[in-house]
Amino acid sequence: MSWLQGFGAWIEEILAHLGLYASFLGRTLKRLGSRPLYWRLIVQQAEMVGVQSLPVVLLTALFTGMVLALQSYIAFHRFGAESMVAVVVSLSMLRELGPVLVGLMVSGRVGASFAAELGTMRVSEQIDALWTLSTDPVRYLILPRLLAATLMLPLLVIVADMIGITGGYVISVGMLHQNPSVYIDKTTLYLQLNDFYSGLVKAGFFGMLIGLIGCTEGFYCRGGAAGVGRATTRAVVIASMSILVSDYFLTAWMFG
Amino acid sequence: MSEAQQPRIRIRGLCKRFGDKVVLDGIDLDVMPGESMTVIGMSGSGKSVLIKCILGLMKPDAGEVLVDGENWLGLDEYEQLKRMRRVGMLFQGSALFDSLPVWENVAFALLHHGESREAARSRASEVLEWVDLPGIEEKMPAELSGGMAKRVGLARAICHKPDIVFFDEPTTGLDPIMSDVINRLIVRLHRDFDSTIVTITHDMKSAKMISDTITMLAHARIHRQLPANKLESDQDPVVRQFIEGRAEGPINVSERNGTGT
What we know:
The complex is a heterodimer.
Chain A: H1 2-29, H2 39-49, H3 54-77, H4 85-123, H5 126-132, H6 137-175, H7 180-189, H8 193-219, H9 224-255
Chain B: E1 9-18, E2 21-31, E3 36-40, H1 47-55, E4 62-67, E5 70-71, H2 77-83, E6 87-90, H3 102-106, H4 108-111, H5 117-130, H6 146-158, E7 164-168, H7 176-193, E8 196-200, H8 204-210, E9 213-218, E10 221-227, H9 237-244
Helix pairs in contact in B: 5-6
């Protein structure tokens, strides 16, 4: 009976957490329709989420594109279909790898940072201090982070897509001696605008997840330094898992 | 009851529990305009919870918090925030915003409610001068000592001229000299601005120095309320145990959960 109770408690905890995320999202979005919107803080957070994540995103996308070209070349070479490497690289980057890898990298960097920063503010009573200074903590702290993550992820994915495809091109043309014009032709021939847009929709959704989970974990953090540590770990793990799970459902919804 | 006799803060039937633990059990309390009231009690007796419930930082399970006759607990979030303009709060750990220089910390409320940066900075300098910390406007909170941070926290609490100021353990973690400096600032605040002050502390020297009235919380209820100058001569066994700092007595130290006696 005890394993059943444990399983029940686990399900209950998951449902409670989902409820907390949903209500916190609603509470935050309710602020969108009224002033002030703290534009300066939104820009600051956008710089933190977008510009400061660029190096890690560029490196991830470049090597992913390169290794994808290398691996798919080995496979296609067996069937004499080497020219299809361009299609695999571009489609994979745009539809899946771009948004998912950027989402995972940003959840590690930004989701952790949101949770740690807000968690520290919570345990040192800075969030309570905001309230007593007649400033809405959700509007001041959460809304700018949520907006920045949701808006910057698609921009990062555009950059990652370009760099990943370029990485594939460099390996295919420079190392595997494929014809450059054939590679570019194949890249453009099989791509549809929908492939590009679907990646951006996913990226926006993943950005919202990263912002929401990082902010919620930090905002409701309890228990001093250890609590901040736990909140940070949870933010990264839950955001990463949510990205992978929701990626399946988004793909099934958009292409099913 | 005439206008002059109406309490600034009136608490009625305030209850709060965490799981099975009852922290506040039907608290009734009045704080008059211009009064400096100090709430004392052992760690875990519910002092901080009481202040958090008054300020809307924590939702009580039952009860009313009336400020000048208006029930703040019945207001929506937006209206509660607006009422916070009347309030200042010095937190136990100062709770300064790490990313902002001292002057922006002090003038935070003004900057976020339409005051120009020049006017807000000028007011911040004025208040920093008042807490005897002139010329530190550009310093960051990480550069301040504990005593300086407390005074900057006090400056921030009063910069927007609130008429009710709350102090959460204002002298905790400070040396005796700096504690005296903070106590004197609170006394000056009370005298010069006629603010209504609510302090929670277990520093008895501080309580006697800054208070008109002392309220003792024990067993989740208000155990005793008396003028500060009667505290030393009070013969209530719980009060005696507390001010003499004895482990033996009616408060059972091993069951400090609000129910042990």
